[in-house]
Design a protein that fits this description.
single chain, alpha+beta, 3-stranded antiparallel beta sheet
Length: 206
């Protein structure tokens, strides 16, 4: 078994209650059951990732389940009536879908912007448009970008009559139909090669 999962199993079996990854590791260090080869400043994040992956891949066959976001317990206790009822109900987490950036993205050379930066390190949007119009741009893979490249993002605001629409923002949970209490007035996105028509106002080449 994975060392992190073994630690979590041992701690939770003794604690007999759900715990966060950070609390699991704290208890493990106090009990001196963390192997010497496991080290790092963010071990709790590694532990959470390992448990989450085990639940995702093994589902009901996993040793673990969530009782709430960020709280894990052992499946072996689900039918143990000595455990409080609130600890025996599984929270079904909505799987996160990372928006993977595929393809090339619009970039300009930051050296072209150096003389435009003000005290607040801001850039004049009109100057950026001028660079784009003068074909001082290229398309690059953001994952292997030139250190001098600055990628262009768009920010779309939707209006209705004279009003700007806003949207609820944050993680969505199926069980509560709820978001974190934040709002945004627009949607941001990096400009990719497939979006180049946004700047094609009169035959602007790729």
């Amino acid at each position: 078994m994975d060392a992190y999962l073994a630690i979590a199993q041992q701690v939770l079996r003794v604690a007999r209650q759900p715990m966060s990854p950070r609390r699991i590791l704290n208890a493990a260090f106090k009990a001196s059951i963390v192997p010497h080869h496991l080290h790092g400043k963010t071990q709790h994040k590694t532990l959470q990732a390992r448990i989450s992956e085990d639940i995702l891949l093994r589902r009901e066959n996993s040793l673990f389940f969530r009782t709430q976001p960020g709280r894990f317990f052992l499946r072996e206790f689900q039918r143990d009536l000595r455990i409080p009822d609130k600890y025996r109900h599984e929270f079904i987490s909505r799987r996160r879908k990372r928006e993977l950036l595929k393809g090339l993205a619009l970039a300009i050379d930051k050296r072209d912007l150096a003389h435009q930066n003000g005290r607040n390190n801001t850039v004049d949007a009109e100057n950026v448009i001028t660079l784009l119009t003068n074909q001082r741009y290229n398309y690059e893979d953001p994952r292997n970008a030139n250190p001098n490249s600055v990628f262009i993002w768009s920010f779309v605001v939707v209006t209705r009559d004279n009003s700007v629409l806003s949207y609820r923002l944050g993680r969505y949970r199926d069980d509560t139909d709820n978001f974190v209490h934040k709002r945004t007035i627009g949607i941001s996105s990096i400009v990719q090669e497939k979006d180049r028509d946004l700047f094609n106002l009169g035959g602007c080449p790729r």
